[in-house]
Amino acid sequence: MSDGKKEGGVFGQIAVAVVVALLAGGTAPWWWEKIIGNSTVPSSPAPSHVKSTRVPVKTPTANTVDESPPSLLLATGQYGGAGSIFRGTYRVIAKVGGKMCIALINGTPTPYRGNSEIIVSSLSWRDGKFHVDATNEQLVILSQTSFTDEIGSRLSWTLETEKIQDFYRTRLNTCLKSNGKYKHSELGDFIDGIPYP
Q1: Percent of the chain predicted with pLDDT > 90
Q2: What stretches pass through the bilayer (predicted)?
Q3: N or C: which end of the chain has fewer CB within 10 A?
């Protein structure tokens, strides 16, 4: 085979590939405009028997707020975590209508002393899940009286009592009356024990 036929064959293959790509609806390569020039194909109007409609499409984004959370909401009350190594650790749920708030009471590891931490937060329904707005942790509702969370050791929390102490009721009512996301934290009770090493 001579060199001319070899080069013509390669050039021909490239030209055929470009033509096929253009005919199939592909875009021109970056060098097309430099060789052929800036040519555009005029668009033709759609035939009269074809009706064009535009349908708005909702583009999902990160942290998209879904308008309708599930009908299964947690019961109001105090939830205990089975197997927790932390003393004085529990969750309190309160709700009004479709709005829910949570108090996260995080105690100290057994047997150490220190103050518990209290975080009161609204719960938001986004991306198909409930999230604690103060910590952005996810809650997974297992039933109307139990859930798991990603906070701490990912415990399963179960309703212990429907009664809410006045201290937490006051803070949760402030959360429930708020507009939008609510976040509040403070130190809780002192838990006696041995000092940290």
Answers
A1: 35
A2: 12-32
A3: C
- What is the SS3 assignment for the chain? CCHHHHHHHHHHHHHHHHHHHHHCCCCCCCCHHHHHCCCCCCCCCCCCCCCCCCCCCCCCCCCCECCCCCCCCCCCEEEEECCCCEECCEEEEEEECCEEEEEEEECEECCECEEEEEEEEEEEEECCEEEECCCCEEEEEEECCEEEECCCCCCEEEEEECCCCHHHHHHHHHHHHCCCCCEEEEEEEEECCECCC
What's the rounded Cα separation, in Å, for the pair 107 and 115?
Answer: 7
Q: Give a yes or no: residue 61 inside a domain.
A: no
Quote the pTM value: 0.62
Token pair in block for residue 154: 């990912």
The position carrying tokens 């103060």 is 134
58 found inside a domain? no
β strands within 20-89, DSSP E: 77-81, 86-87
Query: Do both 129 and 187 map to the same domain?
Result: yes
Is the pLDDT reported for residue 44 higher than 60? no
- Both 100 and 32 in a single domain? no
Q: Which structural domain, as residue segments, surrounds residue 91? A: 77-191
Contact 50, 70 (CB under 8 A): no
What per-residue confidence (pLDDT) applies to 104?
Answer: 94
Give pLDDT, residue 43: 42
Average pLDDT taken over every residue of the chain? 75
